[in-house]
Amino acid sequence: MTELVQTRGALAAARAAREGSVGVVMTMGALHAGHAELIRTAREQADHVLVTIFVNPLQFGPSEDFDQYPRTLEGDLEICRGAGVDIVFAPSAAEVYPGGEPAVRVNPGPLGEELEGASRPGFFHGVLTVVLKLINLTRPDLVFFGEKDYQQLTLVRRMVADFNLPVRVVGVPTVREADGLALSSRNRYLSAAERATALGLSAALQAGATAAKDGADAEAVLVAARSVLAAAAPDAELDYLVLTDPDLQPRPVSGPARMLVAARVGRTRLIDNMPLHLAVAG
Fold first, then answer.
1. Are 134 and 60 contacting, i.e. CB atoms less than 8 angstroms apart?
2. Where would I find the beta strands (DSSP E) of 61-199?
3. May I ask the CATH class of domain 185-277?
4. Which among 6, 29, 15 has a CA at the least distance from the CA of 135?
């Protein structure tokens, strides 16, 4: 049976009642098949699964969609019950930040100011602050994050390593629709025409991965991806399309790599990424 708790005291009691390892999946709700995959992976690797549902105000800018962000707690609880989640922690903002917005926040360092951080100033300060807070509250043995938010996953791993937090971070591959679109809670904002445009992001990544598999160097991989994006999503407002190493360091010359893209389709900002392997120097 899934236990819903909404206060820190109730969370502590529910957590203390479970013996064995605990895996935590942190979400902002509006759960979909991507979250279900995180939960499924957590169930495979931990004795108990705890899901947090909290729309974190710290990671929304003044012009972003905090008030409009979907809040579907009853539906989320049904998904959690069906997936065998043991505990759902769904606190209010006042419960997470009892003194109001915290004066002290986690500084994500230089990487936190690039890519998503450049487009959304202060975003990763808010993300890492709430992740650290939720780790302290839930006391997990493992935490599970999707690779779709790859920069977030990378920064959480760095924070855990730099702060010597006693938890293992597990990345879970992106779950996609049958047509390739990466699952996201924000996909529900897209009209039919916008959704067709959004498919250009995953198509561009796939074109880059195919070019790399065929032996193209880094520059040729980017050219292939940009060409497909321009043709498949001419109405998308591109933010970035970059090729970097798996730790989001400067572009690699060979070996494992990651391609990341972000664009606005209509009023909806979407991100996606894909692993690839560069066989030759660029």
1. no
2. 87-89, 142-146, 168-172
3. alpha beta
4. 15
In the chain, which segments carry CATH 3.30.1300.10? 185-277
pLDDT in tens, 153-191: 999 999 999 999 999 999 999 999 999 999 998 898 999
32 is catalytic: no
Q: What is the CA radius of gyration of the chain?
A: 19
Task: Answer for the pair 75, 90: CB distance below 8 angstroms, yes or no.
Answer: no
- What are residue 211's phi and psi, to 5 degrees? -60, -40
Domain with CATH 3.40.50.620 in the chain: 3-172
Name 143's bridge partners.
24, 169
In the set 32, 35, 125, 277, the catalytic residue is 35
Neighbours of 262 (CB within 10 A): 23
CATH class of 3-172: alpha beta
pTM tops 0.90 = yes
For 250: left if phi > 0, alpha if psi spans -120 to 50, otherwise beta; the answer is beta
- Tokens 């198509």 identify what position? 203
Angle at 92 between CA 62 and CA 96, to 5 degrees: 85
